[in-house]
Specification:
Elements lengths: L1 H11 L8 E9 L5 E10 H7 L3 H10 L11 E9 L2 E12 L1 H4 L3 E4 L2 E6 L1 H16 L5 H6 L3 E7 L4 E5 L2 E2 L5 E5 L9 E6 L1 H26 L1
Parallel strand pairs: 1-7
Antiparallel strand pairs: 1-2, 2-4, 3-4, 5-6, 6-11, 7-10, 8-11, 9-10
Helix pairs in contact: 1-5
Length: 222
């Protein structure tokens, strides 16, 4: 996560004169502990006009920055065009598969439970590091956010989340979001869900015990 943050910060620092960009990372956790990393990067028309460049040139330029990054080897790009708060945004969504080996530092799969954890120290390094990088360039984070700047990451779990710390839980309880530009977000992030297998095992075990108890009662009566 730290390496990814450093790469993306490099892009953000290229656009210091305006807050017209949005970066949203998504980690889609699979049941086996592997997952997909998605990065959506959007640049506003205001910035494009200021830089006197086209959306196509900007998008291709941003994409080229990922070419030599081993973390994004095999990534698939999809161009995007959105309207947000009355302004046109252009960019792309990057998706790359992350096997169990890459995810093991973040995800633990145990009996009946899947856990996604980022320690408090890592969160301070991520959110604090991002803010420091931008503030070193004399940027006011709160002001930039008012202009539309975003840097979030979302964790999607394969089943409903049963524990959520350090993130905002979605209404359907299938995902949680962390704002990396909010100073308060320095606590550890813990997101957990129970797997159907773990639940079924417990229910199945209870059913077996009930059947045994019923059998014993019947035998006694006999």
């Amino acid at each position: 996560m730290k390496r990814i943050r450093v790469v993306i910060t490099g892009f953000l620092l290229a656009f210091l004169l305006t807050g017209c960009y949005k970066v949203n990372m998504t980690i889609d956790v699979h049941e086996d502990g592997s997952g997909n990393l998605g990065i959506e990067m959007l640049v506003g028309q205001t910035l494009l006009d200021y830089m006197e460049t086209s959306s196509t040139e900007m998008i291709e330029g941003l994409k080229s920055g990922f070419d030599d990054q081993t973390e994004f080897e095999g990534a698939v790009f999809e161009n995007l065009e959105k309207e947000i708060d009355g302004e046109k945004y252009y960019g792309f969504n990057l998706t790359v598969a992350m096997g169990e080996e890459k995810m093991k530092e973040l995800v633990t799969v145990s009996s009946g439970k899947i856990s996604f954890v980022i320690s408090g120290e890592e969160m301070k390094e991520m959110s604090g590091g991002m803010q420091d990088d931008l503030q070193d360039e004399s940027m006011d984070i709160n002001q930039m956010k008012q202009y539309g700047m975003e840097f979030n990451f979302t964790v999607k779990m394969p089943y409903k989340i049963t524990k959520c710390e350090g993130a905002v839980l979605s209404e359907d309880k299938m995902s949680a979001v962390v704002d990396l530009l909010t100073e308060e977000n320095v606590n550890q992030v813990v997101i957990e869900c129970k797997t159907p297998g773990g639940i079924s095992l417990w229910v199945g075990g209870a059913a077996v015990l009930a059947l045994i108890a019923a059998f014993v009662v019947v035998r006694k009566k006999a």
